[in-house]
Amino acid sequence: MTIHKRSLFITAIIMILGLFLTAVNPQSASAKTKEGKYIIGTDVTFAPFEYQDADGNYVGIDMDILKAIAEDQGFEYEVKPLGFSASLQALETNQVDGMIAGMSITDERKATFDFSEPYFESGVVMAIAESDESIKSYEDLAGKTVAVKTGTTGSAFAETLQKDIDFKINTFEDSANMYEDVQAGNSDAAFEDYPVMGYALKNERLKLKTPLDPEPGDKYGFAVNKNTNPELLEMFNAGLINIRANGKYQEILDTYIGENAIAAASDVSFLGLIQENSGELLKGLGRTLMLTFVAFVIATIVGVILGLFSASPSKPLNIIASLYVDLFRGIPLIVLAFFVYFSIPQLFDLRLSATVAGIITLSLNTAAYIAELVRGGIQAVDNGQLEAARSLGLPYNVSMRKVVLPQAIKIMIPSFINQFVITLKDTSILSVIGIVELTQTGKIVISRTLSSGNMWLIIALMYLIVITTLTKLSNYLERRLKND
Q1: Alpha helices, H only, 202-269
Q2: Exposure string over 87-105, b if 16+ CB within 10 A, otherwise e
Q3: Contact of 365 with 328, CB cutoff 8 Å
Q4: Contact 236, 69 (CB under 8 A)
Q5: How many other CB atoms are there within 10 angstroms of residue 146's CB atom?
Q6: Cβ contacts of 197 within 8 Å, gap of 6 or more
Q7: Which of 40, 206, 210, 353 counts the highest number of beta carbons within 10 A?
Q8: Where are the alpha helices (DSSP H) in 163-225?
Q9: In what order do the strands lie in the sheet with 76-81?
């Protein structure tokens, strides 16, 4: 291997490793952030316990209790809206310091997490379509389909019933989607914590009813990882005692589930949703574009190097490029996101922000496709061009740089823009690790309004406008290059 090839190889390896290590906070996983704040994972699609209001604030029973305890005990925190199942994984891998998300205290979870004293006792209730008269008992679910939310008490209760009653289970990540599935007739019933269902049923747009009384349920607790952050757990317990004593706790419950409590009101018309949520939607779009641009720049650098490796006459470089492309094109993006955000920090005892993990995920995935674009662009140039340059005495590297690559770039540019569009759409998958990009913003709004039709139309139109603009740009560049 020549010195030049060795330098290319070393450069590529350093850049690939750098993707994993860039912006990683090497502090102890159990420590607070640099600003002295605890990071708390939560769901924010679980009203009335946690959700985001029209002003973008995190509110609900859990959020208000956490806020009251933090003020009482004098600590600061930052809420990470990861979703329930992702929050559990983040807590286990020390990506967050604590978790509050209507989390039931169970013996199984006690083996992994340390819990506070219970702050709420819940139960499970079954909901069916308002017009359904066929389901009056659990036995009537035989042969039907039941909707549940991942990792919840309702899901566990449904699985227990399924041992004796033959029905199918549809699993969802968000309560709003679960309700929509029942209303659409795809599922016949849904199991949900009764305060959550009771709050949702106050919304007149939700055409569901509860034919049976709630089942006795579990107790909710604040959780930290096993043998980690004991001081945070102690402060939560002490603060909980104080806010119960001074009446703040009961005031919070009365606000959301008291006799006079009402569900959050929203204008769910097309224009109403835009007007109420324009700020959050634009923030989500901005975050989507930022993730796309940063990841694409990194992916382009790595992808071009790997593409040159693929087109190189060197077999070792061909093998390196081939292994990378096969590996990262073969791993589903959602699996890669979970691996980068949860597994890597656990393996190296590091804390990795969701944004950095998202950029790394997109970069690794996109680089594999760009490498193939570069290889294809180079191979599309007639091989006689390279041979003619070499016959004139030009070295291989100079021949590639001066003769082949200028022609290959013209061929590759439209494909690069197309790959940029694909990367932009792939950012929606990053909502699974708690990045509040455009799609996740839509989910949060839907969880508050319980109206998905117009919201998803707005999200689709926003993507369509951006992607159509990029497509037009691609067509324009392609025409210009053909005319040059």
Answers
A1: 230-245, 248-257
A2: bbbbbbbbbbbbbbbbbbb
A3: yes
A4: yes
A5: 28
A6: 125, 127, 208, 210
A7: 40
A8: 175-183, 194-201
A9: 76-81, 37-42, 98-99, 223-225, 113-115
103: Cα separation from own chain's centroid: 19
Q: Where are the beta strands (DSSP E) in 130-165?
A: 145-149
Which ranges of 269-314 would DSSP assign to H, the alpha helix? 270-311
Structure tokens at 160: 């227990």
Residue 7's pLDDT band (cuts 50, 70, 90): very low
Q: Is the pLDDT of residue 8 over 50?
A: no
H or E, element range at 126: strand 120-129
The separation between the first and the last C-alpha atoms of the chain, rounded to the nearest angstrom, is 38
* Inter-residue contact 199 to 151 (CB < 8 Å): no
116 phi-psi bin (left φ>0, alpha ψ -120 to 50, beta other): beta
In contact, 66 and 60? CB cutoff 8 Å: no
Query: 412 and 481 in contact (C-beta within 8 Å)?
Result: no
Q: Which of 51, 266, 40 is nearest to 175 (CA)?
A: 51
Of 64-78, 213-227, 383-397, the one with minimum mean pLDDT is 383-397
Query: 456 Cβ partners below 8 Å, 6+ apart?
Result: 442, 446
| β-pairing verdict for 168-172 and 58-59 | unpaired
Closest-CA residue to 320 (of 361, 384, 328): 328
- Go through the chain and tell me how many residues it has: 484
| pLDDT at res. 262 | 65
CA distance 193 to 40: 22
State CA 168 to chain mean position distance.
27
Q: Which amino acid is at 337?
A: A
As a whole number of angstroms, the distance between CA 450 and CA 47 comes to: 10
CA dihedral angle for residue 442, residue 443, residue 446, residue 450, rounded to 10 degrees: 160
Average pLDDT of the chain to the nearest whole number: 85
Both structure tokens of 102: 């209507």
Give the separation between CA 141 and CA 165, rounded to whole angstroms. 7
Output b/e per residue, 36-58; b: 16+ Cβ within 10 A: eebbbbbbbbbbbbbbbebeeeb
Query: Nearest-CA neighbor of 437 among 290, 272, 270, 335?
Result: 290
pLDDT tens-digit map of 202-218: 877 788 999 999 998 78
227 CB contacts (<8 Å, ≥6 apart)? 114
Helix axes 453-483, 270-311, angle to 10 degrees: 40
Cβ atoms of 50 and 234 closer than 8 Å: no
418 vs 17, 287, 434, CA distance in Å?
A: 26, 20, 26
